[in-house]
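Pilot study result, target chain (211 residues):
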Amino acid sequence: MELRALLGRRMLIIVVAAAASFGLLGPPPAFAGRADDLTLARELASQESSDGAIDRILSSHNHRMRSLLALANSPPKQLNPSEQARLLISLAKIFGELESKEAIPFLIEHIGLQIWPSPNIWTKTPEAIIQRMPAIKALIQIGPAAAQALISAPVDCSTSDYRRASIFVVSAIAPTMNDARDAATFLTVARAQADLERRLAEDGLKRVKPK
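Predicted structure:
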């Protein structure tokens, strides 16, 4: 009986290991400090090594997408704030080049991310905005699926920068969509909201007495 129980336990271990190796146990947990992922995170977060690490990932047959998504979900706490920012920038660049639809929620969450922070980013040319804002660039690279996600996202509590970024991305992608009706509705509502805000501001200015 003891031998049979021992064999049963060993068989259970083998079955569980096989299931894990084939991905049958579901997605892995968010980043929890694994050494290889931490090494990858440090490379992507380093000003000196990030470009090389990005190129290596993009040129590899194994893009380590599950590890990258885990890092996006939970950046290692061992990184300081500036390193975490560079990690997010590197991840956005990779997700855009790979046109990774799985990364759309991450990219929307960090849609305002800037490589060189500028308070007047929206006064720049469209080319400069795309160059400076990696999450925006990645969403545009992904295309219609990213636009649809932004159109469907709740905007009641969104900031003005988020709204501008959403409008920018949807406007850039809309011409490539097979059916752009949702995009047209989204942009029409955005324009109406801007017109309302402008009218309210103009009415307020009329009440302001010059000194």
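One observation from the pilot: Confidence is low (pLDDT under 50) at residues 1-33. A full batch analysis is planned for the follow-on phase.
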